[in-house]
Structures
1.
Amino acid sequence: MSHRADRHSPCSILGATVVAALLWPSTSRAQDAAPAAPNGNGGPNGTAHTPEEKRPIVVRIALSKTAAEKLSEQRVRRLVELQVGAGASVPSEATGPLDENAVRVYIDLPEPTVVVVQVQAPDRRLETRNVDVAGLPWEVATRFVATAASQSISALTAPRRKPRPRPPSPEEVARELAKRPWLEVSAGLEAVYSSDLETALFGSRVRLGYHGPILSEAISLAALGSIDAGLWTEVDVSAFHRIWIGPDVRVGLGFGFALAFTKDLRREEELAAPASDNDVELWVRPHALASIDFRLAPEAWLRAGVDPGATIDPNRDQVGLWLGGTVALGYEGW
């Protein structure tokens, strides 16, 4: 019984062979689908390095014939590897693969006392340093040359600083402000001349408005008085468009319509008649609107405007000229 259990039957061997044959293609496909190891440049056959990833630095150092006769090439490489720091690799060969992510260093001795060190990193500018070795032993000069090369290598392989974002221009700020909705509350002083009433009116006006990207709407209440104790009270609705000249200056153009109630406001020919205790009249006032606003604070504005229009007296079927000016302080927010 035990010997028979230890032996493998032909059926079990055949089943294992079939399973292995089924698994082998899938394993091969999985290996083929695995990403290739990255090359030095993170090219198409490798995964790209993330900006935060620290890749090892390979430094290839080559000396001209005249420089190699005076400087110890092996000592230069050893000093550069020590000074650049951990992660730096300085092979003994001056050349390497073309796709290698390497810093190239070339040291020349064009003059008997001047050593020229040229360093270039991938996607970086060429940096050249002149080392004056006049009066120095060549062993000491070798250290100075290695230090100059190490400083250039460190500067060229340091992470690039992210450029500071450009501040928006005044035109861009104005365009952005014009797209935002605003609520306005303002109050100011108003002076008016009415040709139909043949008098000037002075008083105050309060306004509540909503400013959209294209059209602004406002409702205002004004109380004006004349020199001869007459009273003009009106409710005005208006619509206008604001043009932003800059972040702190804008212009408004539009139109409005007002209903006014007057008391004791009489024309010159009516002054001889006795005043009535209930001398209240209804007037209609269509008008244009033009204003310029200046920002005083982040949410405070000074507005100066005019609202030329006409006064219509329905009781007498008369039309007169209305010319008014306003200076107001307003608060805008959302």
2.
Amino acid sequence: MSLASSFERVQASYIREWVRFHEHTIGPRPEGDGMTTPEHSRQSAARDLAAHAHGSTHAHAPEAKRTKGERRTRTPVHLPDSVVDLYRMSAAILAIHEDKCASGAIIASLSIPWGNTKGDHELGGYHLVWPRDLVNSAGALIALGHNVLARRTLRYLMSTQEADGRWAQNLWLDGTPYWNGLQMDEIAFPILFAEMLRREGKLEDLDPYPMIRSAAGFLLRHGPVTGQDRWEENGGYSVFTLAVEVAAMLVAAGFADRHGVPALGAVLRETADAWNARIEEWTYVRDTELSRRVGVDGYYVRVAPDDVADTAPRSGGVISIKNRDGAQAWARYAEIVSPDALALVRFGLRDPNDPRIVNTVRVIDETLRTHTATGPAWYRYNRDGYGEKEDGAPFDGTGVGRPWPLLAGERAHYELAAGRPEVAMQL
């Protein structure tokens, strides 16, 4: 079976399991709830987003005076009372992060971590646009049915792409680059985003092919090694970045075929096949101290040095650990793991029951999972230093990594792909 057909098969399986999860969580719609069609649900979602974006959550707004039952009738799907407010708040937060002047520009966050330590001289921050975060936010809006905003985001991406096909690591609202690191997943994600809109039939008058062709060309010329991983800390063979790159090249091949350029489509597929075939060579390690402790034969690492395939690697198999100092600032790459490996399943490159994936999930859970009052949570990677100090003092370049709610969601995505929606619900 070709990689392209396998990609489509696993993606289709993932979608089926998401539908099962959706039905399991939401349950059957009650008769007469007024929301019996997907189109009605999308319209309701758009109305909810518009209402929230214009302040309907304030105490003086009519919405605040509604009963729970009345509010539920305005929710785009019939949800349990326990999650209605969470759903609506998430939709509102996504909407308010779009700039009101730079149409389609969704910043990473309005928050300022450790804000009490920041001064006016520090221009950077989460109030910038990261293409990766932009695509993930806009992808959630597509799931909500808010395709108008999603199309605005695609236009923004098309207008801020650089001449060589890349996007800046992050940028100001007007498209001016701020940091200039090279993160290959940020070049690949906009391709996947265009495909999301195409599959929904919501591109309308937009033709993203020139953007896709340019971005795919950049991937061909500069991939698969990335200058920085998605955590903006290490270069090399990042398993997360590899998954996004390969998936994006398959999508780009489909666009090339539909635009009458089958030769380019063939090159993209062949390259995707070649990279996909070497993912284990680059990022799967066996018989390490960690694998023996967990009781598995091997696992996918977080990131491998770019010389990992060389006969005499100059790195010595060691990577830097950012936000740490002294002896803690370096580690053998084979001992550092991350939930990033689950991207191989999420983007359709590996079956959730692949023994290598199952082994890696065991290692991830054994090494990175912690238990909180509200459920399990996961760290970005072992030995992470991005977080406040042990005593709670603000992060100042070094610290102690903390669990990320995002990773619980990604862990749940894996359970959906594996056909276990009940487990996903618990996460």
3.
Amino acid sequence: MTLTRHSAIPPSLALATLLVSTALMSPAYAETVEGVFALPGAEEAVSGEMTVTETGPLSRGLELVFADKGTSERIDRFDVELTQELHILAVDDALTTLVHRHVEHAAEDGTFASELSFPHPGLYHIFTDAVPSGKGQQVLRFDVEVGEAQPALSGEQRAEALKTGEDHSRQSSSNAYTVTLDSSGLTAGEEGIISLSVEKDGKPATDIEPYLGVAAHAVFVRAEDLAYVHAHAMANGAQTMAHGDDHGGTAGHETHDKAMSEDHQGMEGMSTDMPASEDDVNSADASHDMSGMDHATGSGEAGAVSPEMSVHVTPPAEGVYALWIEFIGGGEVQTVPFTVDVSGGHHH
């Protein structure tokens, strides 16, 4: 009788094989997050649910559905604003990082799908800005932890960090571009104007192109309560209109006779809450990781936008705001961080 000897599998190899097999069989980590309405002054017409799936250590797949607040029926029709049906703006809890993405169209059933890459672990506030047909602008905020997250900061802690960090109240830079800003005319509850001047290598920039149909974008987030405002810049007196103005109210976008072109949304309502990267979340440098930006969304010829711009905006409340100015310069999206302190309104 012939005996056949079979080599035994080493225990360590068997364990490794089991772990690999288990990992391959296990679905990716996913969680469902309910949205918080984030547009003060607007009528809350929708609810939202976001499924967040881990696609990497610092990346997450997002699936978003909206439902009618009154009927609970899923919404599947959206108006195009600034060339897209959904704008996604994510900020870290310390308001040092902005990630800005877009989804051109929802699926037939109304689902929006995207993927965000984050510059570092932590708590992020993801704002979703859309115009469901017939309901006007709606903004929801989803709070998502990416990797290890520190306890959430209080509004006072955010405001103090912005005020005591690097001074970005009047001048800030992204790559070769430097933006000088004058926000002295801003008062809570009143429409004001911010003036911007963009230089490249110390000279007025000549290679600025429209970004999603407008000269530049201004994203404000109030430190105390994460109130959100998205405004658009006018260049050379060009006529522009805040996104959402023609969709049932101006709670999130302000209307100006001179004001803004067609693209993203606008202005009055703020909710919490987009890149040059700074790994330290506690840095008051309100910097941004460009990995989350869509770069192929500019339009127009280089030099089509004047380096002298103005932004009309109505801050909803006094307080400290993180502000990001976004524009296309040199064929790339430039994101320049500022800190703006808005005083209270006039009392009579």
